[in-house]
Structure formats: C-alpha cells, structure tokens
Amino acid sequence: MTDEVQLDTSFPKYVFIDGIPVVGKDKYLKLQKVLESFFKKNSGDFQNLVVPESAEGGTKGICFIEYHTKEDAEAAAAKLAGAKLDSQHILKVNMYDDIKRVRDVPDTYEEPVVQPYSSRENLQSWLLDDRELDQYVMRYGEMTEVAWNTLKEGEDPESVCKRQAWSDVYVQWSPKGSYLLTIHVKGGVALWGGPNWNKFARFVHPGVKLVEFSPCERYLTTASPQFQENDNPKDPQCIIVWDIRSGKKLRGFAAGANFSWPCFKWSHDGNYIARTIENAVSVFCVPSMDLLDKKSIKAPGVKEISWSPTDLMLSYFLPAQDNKSPTVQIIEIPSKKEKRTKTLFDATECKLNWHPNGTYLCLKIDRVKKKTTVQGFEIFRIREKDIPVELLEVKEAVHSFSWEPHGNRFAMVSGEQPRFDISFYAVEKNIVLLKTLEKRNTNALFWSPQGKNIVLAGTTSGLLEFFNADNMESMGTAEHYNVAAHEWDPTGRYFTTVVSAWRSNIENGYRLFNFQGKELRNALKDKFYQLLWRPRPPTPLSEEKLKQLKGSLDTLSKKYKEADQQKKREEREKRKQKRINIRHEFEDYIRGRREEYNKVLQEYTRETLDGEGEGEDEKAVYYVETTVEEVQQVQELLLEDN
Hints:
Family: Belongs to the eIF-3 subunit B family.
Strand order of the largest sheet: 2-3-1-6
Subunit structure: Component of the eukaryotic translation initiation factor 3 (eIF-3) complex.
Structural class: alpha+beta
Helix content: 10-25%
Strand content: 35-45%
Keywords: Coiled coil, Cytoplasm, Initiation factor, Protein biosynthesis, RNA-binding
Number of strands: 42
GO molecular function: RNA binding; translation initiation factor activity; translation initiation factor binding
Number of helices: 5
Largest sheet: 4 strands, antiparallel
Protein name: Eukaryotic translation initiation factor 3 subunit B
C-alpha cells in the first residue's frame, strides 16, 4: 500500500491587500492599471495581480499579488504595509498564508506549554571584581586569551580564559564590553560573554571579514567582500545587518562600486543607520530597515557623512557641483529639518570631526589658493543658538587632529617631516592657542579617555611622550619601534603599544606603561597579533552625583591609599613568607643529605674496622695526627730602660 500523497496547500508567494478603492464595472480596468503601476513602483516586480470582481463586475476592495519568491513577497508585504494609495485609502497588507493560519485557529482553547525560565549569564560580570581591575584580550599564534590587568612583579597577567583557534582572523569587543566577537571565515561570526565565556549568538555569513557593532550593542553589521562583484540583487549578501538578541537577519545590501568600510554609519542610539549612494544619503529605520520617509535625502556629490555622538543630527559635505559652492549641512533626524548650512568657498576636501560630547563639530578644510593647498578649520558650536562658527587658519599642513574627550580643548600635528609642531587650542569666546611644542619627532595624538593626559607618538620614530595638558609639561618619554597599535585602558591609567606580527616579525609583543610613561611590563611573544582593552559601559551616575564624588575625592583617595598600602604589605608578607619557606626547605634538604652522608660514613667505617682477611684483602685505616699553629694576635710592647 502506497503512502497517501500530501498536497502542498501553502501559498508563500502571495500577498493579500485590503483597502483598495471599491469601484464599479466601468472603472475596473482603469483601477487595475493604477494598482499595477503603484505596486511595481513601491514593491518591485511581481508575477500576477488578481483583483476579485463583485457580482456587478466592480471591485471588492481587496486584491492578491503573486511574487517570484517567498522572500520577495515578504519584503513587499513589509514595504506596502500602511502605504497610502491616496489620501483616503491606506493599505492593510498580510501574507496569504497568515490569513489561512488565523482562519484555521481551533474554536477550543488549548493552554500553551510554559517553557521553563532560563536566566542569561551576567554580561557585565567582570565589573563586579573586588579589585576593580580591567581586562584585555590578546591574540598570539593560534591562541586567544582574556586576562586581568594584574601588575604583580615578575608574574604574567592573571588569565581569565584561554582557547586555541578561537578566531580565524581577529577578535573585537562590542562598544560597551558585553561581547567578544570572533570571526570564522567559513561560518560567520560568534559572540561570547559572561563569566563562563559561553557562546551567546552566531551569525552565518560565509567569507565575512569586516564587522561593526551599533553603539547600543543591539545590532551588528557584517561584510563579506567575496560577494562584492557577484551579488544577488534580489537577495544581497555582501553587507548584512543583524539583530543581536534575536539572531535575525534584518536586511542585506549590495556593496556598490566604491566600497569602503564602514560604509554604514550608526546613530548614537542605534535607531537609524545611514549610507551614501550616488547623489543622495539613505537613512534607514532600525529594526524595520525601512527607508526613512520612503525616500533618500538629495545630496549631489555627497562624499562624507557623520552622526553626532550624542544627538540625532547628521552632518554631510557636498563638494562644488554645477556652479554651486561646496557646503556642509547639519540636519535633524527623523524630521530632516536643516539645523545649519555653511558654504565653504574654494573647498576641495572636508573632514568632519565631532566632539565626543556632541558640543562641537570641527571641519578640517582643504582649499586651493594660487595653485597651493591651504588648510583651515571651522568649528560649529552645536549647543548655542543658531550654531555660530569659529574660524582658524593654519599655515602649515595638518597631519592629525584630536578632540579632548571631556572639555573644550583639541590638539593638532602640523609641519613637515621629520619634525612636527604639536599645538593645543581651547574653544572659549574665541579659539585660543594654549601652547605649541616645536620640532617634535611625533606625528600621532592619543588622548586619555578621561582627558587631561595625552600621548604624543611617533609612528615611524617609535618615540612616546606622555604629556600633561593641564600643566603643559612632559611627564616622561619612552621608545617602542615598529608599533602597529596604541591604546589607553578605559580608566586612563595605563597605555599599551603593540608590535603586531601582521606588520613585523621582529620583537612581536606589547608594552604596558602607566599614564606618566613608566614602563610596567615588556612582554615578548612570538606571532603576537592583537591586544584590545575591554571597554566599560557609560557610568549610570548623573552629573550631580559625579560632582559630589569629585568633591569627596580626598576622603575616598585616603580609603583607596590605605587599601593599596594594605595590599602592598600583604604582598611583601607573602614574598617574605615565600623566602622563609624556601630557606626552610633548603635547610631540611641539607639536613637530610647530611644525615644520609653520616649514615653512609658510619657504615663504611664500621665495615672497615670489622673487616676480616689478611694480605691483599685486608683493609687498613690510618690515623694521622696533625698539629696546626695559628697566630691569634700580635702586640708590640715598648720596654723602657731603667
């Protein structure tokens, strides 16, 4: 007996639409043409459109659309949901199979099975450490290791987790330190975390090499260059946006001709993602991934876009085009309202540098005057009324610019090789030059996350200068050649430099300095690739609470100094006890060996004295008595003549 044939009664490629106009027989064909045009424009190509007729030959207010694939149908349903055919007709859209599923719900209620609750591991567990230490991850050889920043003299850092072949390419922390991301070229990426370093999520994306988290850690963007040239336009695989919590793929994008990373820019809250296309800026709402207002923002020739780190404001640069001067625009999202527009006469290039607190936007502008490129800066005061702009002209070429994380200062590197000038400025009523360090062999700037301190680094010279920007004085210098990466720890107390095997095969490893430039560790490891400090999430304390804590800093510092002194005493006591134990072990060993020697000597002597036999076999013992004279003291006495 053969099994009964099961017919497939699903219609995964069909979309049901309610809300179209109800018209008579005379307008039926005209409406059908209007619907075909509207749906092709708003949802893409489809196979068939069915508009059911009423008994009189008119419409019933509903229609069905058949698409080429299930994926096309789902994408079209998402796009058409809530679309306006006109001011009086708003479309209600459902997948046809969803209607069947709802229709087939049984009349009798069945109580759902309650799944047992399983709690997730604490993703911020490392912040509960009593020692208040930070962590960092290292990659060397085939090993990936997470370690505490312990600074015990003569000891390696305390390992937290060490695994072989944990990642194929590199590792990356999420912005708040909750996840460690590993890359697996054939399988995609994985996220790890918690006290046991379990896998929290996996995202399948063959050939993936580039990744970026949203600032809120809710979403992830991955890119696989192998799809760049031969991508599927209906289902792009080159760039994918993921929902981290659900593991769901939100949308795929083609790379485009001028692919560069990161090609998408996230808003500070993770609710929007933007990219540049030809003559426009596309802003997508997350997680729906719908284009904001269903259309891109016109931006002829747009080259660069940048979000405010703290507000829903987007800035972008428009170069000169069609006799129009180059401009910079700042708009609000989602309203797209212009906050500020500034014309940049004669500008050929413009770099956008937001202050980490969102208080300022600095434009680094290249202008051509008399066949010579001249550089200047324009700083927008974002928080002030009408957003006024301050101008700063620089006579020499500028190689690096960096805002102080907290405050109103910035630093820049200018001049020509091999000696550069390091200048410090403050944005007050005007832009004020604070100090210029002339003829320095450094060309890179690394501000401490807490501000105040900055490292002036020479990427070719290997020189490191630890500088206090409050007192405008150098605290210390060091050298480390062939450095590929410089990074502060989250507290601003420690600074690391890395010589990576990706760049050089000589003296791979890292060095750890304190904020004053004192070297605390010099670790050489064969095939050392990476060292990344684990980020900390933003403090939940308010500004008032932080001010209160700063006011009681003297009292708190005494407490911590006492704790540090106690810890040092305990460490000294441990070292002392360790030396005592080693000495006792050595003395016990010597005592045991001496007893063993004396026992053997006694046995040998007894056997010799009690030995039997004459002649050649007779054993003799000879005792030699030796008299040794030793001068103990010599005195000279002067005898007087009577």
